[in-house]
Amino acid sequence: MKARRDIKTILILVISIVFVGLIPLFIKGEYVLNMLFLLCLYTILSHSWNIMGGYCGQINLGQAAFFGIGALTTRYIWVAGYPFPVALIAGSFSSLILACLIGIPTLRLRAHYFAIGTLGVAMIALITIQNALPGVDFLPASLMSDYNPTIRFYTALIVAALTIFAVYCINNSRLGLAMKCIRDDEEAASATGINVVRYKIITLMLSTFFAGLAGGLFAYYYVSYYYYVPFELMWSFDPVLIVFIGGAGTVVGPLIGALCYVILKEIFAISMGQVNVLIFGVVFILIVLFLPKGLIGIKKR
Amino acid sequence: MVTAYIQILIYGLINGALYGLVGLGLALVFGVMSYLNVAHGALIMIASYACFWLFHLLKVDPFLSSLLIVPCFFLLGVIIYKILFDSLKRFPEGQKTKNSLLISFGLLLILSNLVTILWTADERAVTPHYAGFVIQFFGLRIPYIGIGAVLFAVVVSILLDLFLSKTYFGKGIRAASQDHEAAAMMGINVGTTYLISFGIGVALAGIPGIIVSLSSFNPSLSFELTNKALVVIILAGVGSVYGVLLGGFALGLAEAIGVLFIGATYREVIGLVLFVLFLLLRPQGLMGKRS
Questions:
Q1: Is residue B120 part of a domain?
Q2: Which of A44, A61, B67, B237 could be a cystine partner for B288, CB 3.0 to 4.6 Å?
Q3: Is B287 inside a domain boundary?
Q4: What is the per-residue pLDDT across A73-97, written as a single tens digit (0 to 9) for each?
Q5: Residues of A in contact with B231 (CB under 8 A)
Q6: Which ipTM value was assigned to this complex?
Q7: Which whole-number Å values give the CA distances from A215 to A159, A210, B31, in the listed order?
Q8: Domain annotation covers residue B288
């Protein structure tokens, strides 16, 4: 029974990734490409949050700091002349290092203190960057000449596919089991011999690694932006909304959440500005209150 | 030169009074029922808008409008509690905090976006005729509004402390915060106590809202205010009313001293760094005892 369900999940994932990959072949235009890229970006970012928040139950509101440092480092190394894959990996390791520096001390905190402690870290990063790097980050002309959004989209798609695969593997591993155990009852987990602090650190490092990847892709896709943009707090808040609406602690849930989010954002961004966040807030509260398993939980009922 | 330093410290104290008031409502709700209401900043901002419209449409003095805003916010708090938070009280403590954090986080997003949509993101301020008045004092300048803020903070703290320690109902709130099961067995209606405490917590958001409205404000302030409230309750712990007020003053002074030595651009960072340090090294707060 479990094996059959697994095959079904894999099939759904593969079909949806291939489907997204095929869309640009049939519908041309930068608008569609842009939306599909955002879909990949939000999938990676929300899965990175899902690893920590959905599987391990630790609410991390500092994801923007890790996303931002990934973007900053990737852009810097890429512009310095190294090939992009090197820069991307370096960027995600930079957010991993940041996680070791500030994340591990904050993990000693109890659950809700962890949430507000990481929020504090994200705000420190945002304000510091706003003051230290007030300008706009432009791509130099040499890199602009071979700018091609299609290639960039497919890079993002590959990274997204790898991320989903990684989360799928975590879901079915001992590590995933330990993470779910910690989420459900930290004391019981520790009593059954799970080294809670060690697993939390591993989880945080995995989570921030993927957040750094997402940041790197942001720096790869967008030609110019203010340095502080990838540090904005919405990069912390959006994944929380997406993951809970789709279904926390599942492989498919964040995909559904990201799809809803990108579509809603597109519909309302044109007509009414910020209404999408308002609607998402309302849906988010309703889901936390009445559907703790997210949209994906409807089916299982 | 010395006067300039003292002047900055005075502004720090005035800001500190505001921070203390901002933290008070959050601390009450968190202390009594372990709900971490991060929407507190948004509620304060809405009070600022209420004050703004009362002043502009009906010419009500901002300090007088507290008589109207505070009872309305109490009702608002009761309604919010009934709709959103009542169902959480059956959870164990950690779960309660986490779920209330998530729900109030959604509420924070809703309220701050709603205000932006309704009244745009423009900077606004309430400008009564005494807005620019200052008291000159040995070369120091103390604004009237600052004196009002400090007075307000002290009076509200004293009233709240008297309510909690002297009245029967206040004692009930303290009993429920120490052990809600034991309190229920002693004949205290914990459900009503929670409802009223949440109402008071939201009513307490009305007062800092008035002070905020006297300098310029906009919808993005709600995040900043929530953040200040969190810093204050981490600095002070949630044990006592005066502790929270002192935590507010401590934050205001720390920011002022930071501005002296590092510069105004990093003012926000100073509070946050303090906050993270306290979280790591002294999670029970300045006044709390290690449990």
A1: yes
A2: B237
A3: no
A4: 999 999 888 888 999 999 999 999 9
A5: 120
A6: 0.81
A7: 12, 9, 38
A8: no
Measured between CB atoms, does A116 come within 8 Å of chain B? yes
Per the structure, how many domains does chain B have?
Answer: 1
Which chain A residue has the Cα nearest residue B263? Answer: A131
Give dist(CA B203, CA B205) in Å, integer: 5
Q: Identify the CA nearest to B155 among candidates B3, B24, B287, B13.
A: B24
Look up the domain containing B51 and give its range: 2-281
The lowest-confidence range among A5-19, B34-48, B50-64 is: A5-19
Q: In this predicted model, what pLDDT tens digit does every residue of A195-249 receive, in sequence order? A: 888 898 899 999 999 999 999 999 998 888 888 899 988 899 889 989 988 888 8
Q: Residue A128's CB: how many other CB atoms inside 10 A? A: 18
Instruction: Choose the weakest-confidence range: A295-299, B16-20, B81-85, B225-229.
Output: A295-299
Indicate the pLDDT class of residue A254, thresholds 50, 70 and 90: very high
Per CB-CB distance under 8 Å, the chain A contacts of B84 are: 285, 289
**For residue B44, what is the domain's CATH number?**
1.10.3470
C-alpha separations of B262 from A48, A273, B161, B259, B270 in Å: 35, 38, 36, 5, 9
pLDDT band at A3 (very low <50, low <70, confident <90, very high): low
- Asked if A15 is an interface residue toward chain B (Cβ–Cβ < 8 A), one would say no
Contact partners, residue B122, CB within 8 Å, separation at least 6: B218
Please name each of the domains of chain A with its CATH number.
2-300 (1.10.3470)
